[in-house]
Write a structure and sequence with these properties.
heterodimer, A: alpha+beta, DNA polymerase, domain 1, 2 domains, 6 strands, about 35% helix, B: alpha+beta, Uridine Diphospho-n-acetylenolpyruvylglucosamine Reductase, domain 2, Enolase-like, domain 1, 5-stranded antiparallel β-sheet, 4-stranded antiparallel β-sheet, about 20% strand, binds flavin-adenine dinucleotide, binds FE2/S2 (inorganic) cluster
């Protein structure tokens, strides 16, 4: 049993985008706050802090989750991928380029969460049709209403990945 | 959020020991409801006991041909497990109608059963709420009650249970396997959640210190029709106003067996087994479905703003029975209701 005393800081090691980070934190710190405030990785956004918008979506051990509802301390040893770990300006992730091509954003606030969620959706492999992608992405709200472009961008990347598979 | 101590339990016995001994302890599974309620100070545990290290992560075959779902299996892993999609498609459909991809990856079987109501007064610690603060009053009775209960409510509480998964489990006659300081016991689904009555602060019949180990699904007769129909204010990522789960067995145009449960209309998934017997031996036609919907809702009582839910539940019941009888269950991706 691991036990922390009242409001003592305890150390948690989390691998973020491939780099291990040992952080001393209070049990009440969420993964989102750990990323943003302790590691200065502010790509993941805090839209609602209650699981209702998806702006904080990251990949935790390969699965998309709302990082605002995860206590960081409970994820000792886990691996997190955030938008910062996906591509660089010189070498964008295919979904990042597709979002630009399809005009899948306006203000961009929801975009890091949308892209991490779309990667999770593709890894899950259950969404094939347009309707299934729309439904599978419903956990990511976009106040600018860029949904049409977002779904097109994901379909585009899914199609090019499956045609690459076929040519293999 | 109030400060708390954090513990990671390594065995079921240890988790029960802490949970039973510490009055301020809360168990944490996926955390999607607990952490949310802690952020609003609705839940103020002194100790959070993380149970994710317990060996309750498997779906296993049962000797009677049913399946056992470990309490810590994620909602997504249940919904997409081939044994569930083939043998219990109603459960898969209901889970996929709820929350979002992210939340279903985090949420667990046990946590889904014990999620609290979404009544906005329950969530607001500035106002009274008999469920949160017994004896303080119920502002929903005279306030915003558009989404509230139409069946089984009490003068003290008109909250609903918000789960989709539980509506399917109710129709499936699942049982809940729990363990507490006094040992292991099984609770039939219909006796697990309770009506608010005089003590709306209690959602379930769990005894102090009991934790959920698993949910058992019984073997079903082959080729049962099913449908899960969820009606809500937007097409996805929203709680139900009304939902209906149906399992139906029809041979030679005669209904042999029917299970029907309503969601988001009461403090628990609403099932009336006496009413279901009206269907047995009848033809699967709209007039018959209307009769059972009449019967199910004849004791419904509206609050000031939710009278529409009675008619909505009636129509959803008839439509869901038609979908199940026709072998055309509601799609959870294409939301058109046919
Ligand atoms: C924005 C949003 C939208 C949602 N939409 C829907 C929806 O449309 N439909 C729907 O059905 N649900 C919906 N949910 C609710 C979601 O399904 C629940 O939050 C989730 O199922 C809870 O599971 P968890 O494992 O995260 O539970 P936790 O938050 O970890 O726990 C919830 C409760 O269960 C207790 N608990 C957990 N496991 C056990 C156990 N094994 N034994 C004893 N006690 C236990 C905890 O102590 C706690 O009291 C939504 C949630 C959010 C945040
Ligand atoms: S910030 Fe986490 S879902 Fe909105
Ligand atoms: S681009 Fe502005 S919120 Fe989505």
């Amino acid at each position: 049993m691991i036990l922390t005393q009242d409001s003592t800081q305890i150390e948690v090691t989390i691998h973020v985008n491939g780099t291990p980070h040992a952080v001393k934190t209070d049990p009440c710190v969420t993964l989102l706050d750990l990323l943003r405030d302790h590691l200065q990785l502010t790509g993941s956004k805090k839209g609602c802090d209650h699981g209702q918008c998806g702006a904080c979506t990251v990949l935790l051990d390969g699965k998309r989750v709302n990082s605002c509802l995860v206590l960081a301390i409970s994820r000792e040893g886990s691996s997190v991928t955030t938008i910062e770990g996906l591509g660089s300006i010189a070498n964008l992730h295919p979904l990042q380029s597709a979002f630009i091509r399809h005009d899948a954003l306006q203000c961009g606030y929801c975009t890091p969460g949308q892209i991490c969620s779309a990667i999770g959706l593709m890894l899950e492999g259950h969404a094939k049709s347009h309707d299934e992608i729309r439904e599978g992405m419903s956990g990511n709200l976009c106040r600018c209403g860029a949904y049409i472009g977002i779904v097109e961008a994901i379909e585009d990347v899914m199609e090019s990945e499956s045609s690459r598979e076929e040519n293999r | 959020m109030k400060r708390f101590r954090y513990m990671k339990a390594v065995s079921v016995r240890e988790a029960i020991g802490i949970f039973a001994a510490e009055p301020g302890a809360a168990l944490m599974a996926g955390g999607t409801n607990l952490v949310d309620l802690m952020k609003y100070d609705v839940s103020t545990p002194t100790v959070v006991v993380d149970i994710n290290g317990l060996p309750l992560h498997d779906i296993t075959e049962q000797p009677d041909g049913g399946l056992r779902l470990g309490a810590l299996v994620s909602n997504a892993d249940v919904a997409y497990d081939p044994r569930i999609t083939e043998r219990y498609p109603l459960l898969s459909s209901a889970i996929l109608a709820g929350a979002s991809g992210q939340l279903r990856n985090m949420a667990t079987v046990g946590g889904n059963l014990l999620q609290r109501t979404r009544c906005s007064y329950f969530y607001d610690v500035q106002v009274p709420c008999n469920k949160r603060e017994p004896g303080s009053g119920c502002p929903a009775k005279t306030g915003l009650n558009r989404g509230h209960a139409i069946l089984g409510a009490s003068p003290l509480c008109i909250a609903t249970h918000p789960s989709d998964m539980c509506v399917a489990l109710s129709a499936l006659d699942a049982t809940i396997l729990v363990e507490g300081p006094r040992g292991v016991r099984s609770i039939p689904f219909s006796e697990f959640h309770r009506l608010p009555g005089e003590s709306p602060e209690r959602d379930t019949t769990l005894e102090p210190g009991e934790i959920i180990l698993a949910v058992d699904l019984p073997l079903l007769p082959p080729s049962m029709g099913y449908s899960y129909l969820k009606i809500r204010d937007r097409l996805s990522y929203a709680f139900a106003l009304v939902s209906v789960a149906v399992l139906i067995k029809i041979d030679d145009r005669i209904i042999q067996q029917a299970h029907l449960s309503l969601g988001s209309v009461a403090h628990k998934a609403w099932r009336d087994k006496d009413a279901e017997t009206l269907l047995v031996g009848a033809a699967p036609v709209r007039a018959v479905f209307k009769r059972i919907a009449d019967r199910l809702l004849d004791s419904a009582i509206a609050q000031e703003q939710n009278g529409f839910k009675i008619e909505l539940a009636h129509r959803a019941t008839v439509r869901c029975l038609e979908q199940a009888a026709a072998g055309t269950p509601q799609s959870q991706a294409n939301k058109r209701i046919c």
